[in-house]
Specification:
alpha+beta; 4-stranded mixed sheet; 8 helices
């Protein structure tokens, strides 16, 4: 399955509503002094990728056509959630007790929150882990360290650790702290 920008925007809007409820006490998530909005636009490019971008009067997402063309909608949703996570990562890191941290934690918290949001929205951990575990085929992760991005296998392992902790009834904030605190900082 693939998504168009309307479907991607609908998911981003739904994900932002859940992020608002879970991490912002119902307030609108903001980044760069702008409200985050569920608008997704596409740009040319075969490689699955996305970034925050100003749209209208808020901060939305620009994603590559290659991302929207992936055959797994959970992977597309995870990637959209990850990019939204960049807008909320500093806030969420502060919420989990890691305010001011930089480096790999900023990428890993985006992965953790994306996976957690997907589960909160009705997907299973098995579905999420199977989807992101297929990263070599989909190209959503790099095999080696890239900037602050850990290698793909480590990223999947961090999400699996989150799943294991959540299933042990550990709260998301505590689990995210345990996973992100020991990561390399820049």
């Amino acid at each position: 399955m693939t998504m168009n920008t309307t479907q991607a925007s609908e998911f981003a809007t739904t994900a932002l509503a859940k992020i608002s409820k879970l991490f912002y006490a119902g307030a609108t998530p903001t980044t760069c002094d702008m409200p985050m909005v569920g608008k997704v636009i596409s740009e040319k490019g075969a490689v699955p990728n996305g970034n925050l971008t100003p749209v209208d009067d808020g901060m939305g997402l620009v994603v590559s056509e290659g991302l929207l063309a992936l055959k797994d909608n959970i992977t597309i949703k995870f990637a959209i959630g990850h990019e939204l996570g960049h807008g909320t990562s500093l806030h969420i890191l502060g919420e989990v007790g890691l305010a001011g941290i930089s480096g790999q934690a900023t990428e890993v918290i985006a992965d953790l929150s994306a996976a957690y949001i997907l589960v909160e929205l009705g997907h299973t951990w098995t579905e999420v882990l199977a989807s992101i575990g297929n990263w070599r085929t989909t190209g959503i992760f790099d095999p080696h360290v890239s900037g602050h991005h850990p290698p793909g296998d480590e990223r999947v392992a961090h999400v699996k650790k989150l799943k294991d902790l959540i299933e042990q009834k550990v709260a998301f904030k505590t689990a995210a702290f345990q996973i992100c605190n020991p990561l390399p900082r820049s």
